[in-house]
Amino acid sequence: MSQHNLEFYIDGAWVAPISNVTLDVFDPATEEAFTKITLGTVEDADKAIAAAKKAFASFSRTSRKERIELLERVVEVYKKRSGDMAEAISREMGAPMSLAKTAHVGAGLGHLVQALEVLKTYEFDEMINKTMVTREPVGVVGLITPWNWPMNQVGCKVGPALATGCTMVLKPSEIAPVSGLVFTEIMHEAGVPAGVYNMVNGDGATVGHRLSSHPDIDMVSFTGSTRAGILVAKAAADTVKRVAQELGGKSPNIILGDADFARAVTHGARSCFGNSGQSCNAPTRMLVPADRQEEVIAIARGVAEQTVVGDPRAEGTTIGPVASDVQFAKIQKLIEQGIAEGARLVTGGPGRPSGLNKGYYIRPTIFADVTNSMTIAREEIFGPVLSILPYSSEEEAIEIANDTVYGLSSYVTSGDLDHARKVARRIRAGMVHINGAGGDLAAPFGGYKQSGNGREWGRYGFEDFLEVKSMFGHQ
């Protein structure tokens, strides 16, 4: 993995932190610490920000060709270190190795490649009437990334920031920081110019707050909980910096009466349980016709009972543990609330799966007869917990789907694509997966309402790192 766990990366070099306060990094499968990181201070963040500000003057003026060549080198080294990256992700947040190698490492690579492809053809200048309108890098950006999909979020922020000519300071999650250290080694080996990319570990209250509030940070891009996103926005308000946020979700999965239920329910349940339920866009609320709820329950129960919970490094494991003791306790409490509030427990429930006495493992859990007023239907659980909500009409299904403070993702399945799209247009969410379709790295990712603002991925994510300038006047 990384040789620099106790160091930060500032101005093109690995440096000793100002403080020697360390934090244990735990393997959630064993509940044992396997390494340490140093917690950064305000002064460490200030040094990194100063380096990024200094580097912006020259890096912002680099040519398209120079930035293409830089990103190509980053992609090449990332591929070379993919094994180390998969090992780091699996160890720090519990993803099965198969998932870490494919989905986790692959997502980071995909976003870097996507930023490179957009850069090759993007039109930074356009003429409107006789005015030159140009797009320029927004400036120094603070990047704050989460533990649940660490490389997905690092890749979709660093890639477009580099491509557009921004300089940056990354603060990876202190829960899952080792992948961020490996990524930083990749950036160094790829020859990113000094000060363009900086990395400081630390907690949100210290380093995260400093990045959000510092006057020399022009933009902060944050992915995490809605609660933390609100704090970031408040900290950023005094300096009127741009804030891009990808926050929580409680995504509805509407299965319409003309859908293939075996396929739709199976896919929906697997998607909910995938990554141990730790995805902001997971389809956690399955909305089904009331008169077919028992059929749905039988299919979903089968998926849960076939889900193999176990050691992330063991062959055949479907899902590993959740990432931390805090997450484990929160999920257990919410499962118990579901039972207390009268939801029907179909399978799973409190406690660890049979045979697993250590590790932050959660039993794949399904509730039926859930109403949208229940806590399990309103709060983001972030674990392998599926709520089945019966509806009596399509209108009611749409009403339930939209009855949430969130609006990140959603899902609609129908035997008729046009029918599905008509329903999809009425859902107040930034994304709709129709008939089991996956995401598209070239299309925008982001949400409505308290799921955030701004967009990531592809050209739309690229443009979040650009300012628009009008140059009036002509001969």
Per-chain topology:
Elements: E1 8-10, E2 13-15, E3 22-27, E4 32-38, H1 42-59, H2 64-80, H3 82-93, H4 97-121, E5 125-128, E6 131-137, E7 140-144, H5 150-164, E8 167-171, H6 178-189, E9 197-199, H7 204-213, E10 219-223, H8 226-237, E11 242-246, E12 252-255, H9 261-273, E13 285-289, H10 293-306, H11 325-340, E14 344-347, E15 365-368, H12 375-378, E16 385-391, H13 394-402, E17 406-407, E18 411-413, H14 417-425, E19 433-434, E20 448-449, E21 452-453, H15 458-463, E22 466-471
Parallel strand pairs: 7-8, 7-10, 8-9, 10-11, 12-13, 12-18, 13-16, 15-16, 18-19
Antiparallel strand pairs: 1-2, 3-4, 5-6, 6-22, 11-21, 14-15, 17-20
Give an account of the 3D structure.
α4 (97-121) runs parallel beside α5 (150-164) and α7 packs across α8. This protein has 15 helices and 22 strands. α6 (178-189) links the parallel β8 (167-171) and β9 (197-199). Helix content is 40%, strand content 20%. It has 475 residues and is of the alpha/beta class. The protein starts with 7 loop residues before the first strand and ends with a strand. The protein folds into 2 domains: 8-247 and 451-471, 3-Layer(aba) Sandwich (Aldehyde Dehydrogenase, Chain A, domain 1), CATH 3.40.605; 252-441, Aldehyde Dehydrogenase, Chain A, domain 2 (3-Layer(aba) Sandwich). It comes from Phreatobacter stygius. Keywords: Oxidation, Oxidoreductase. It is an enzyme of class 1 (oxidoreductase).
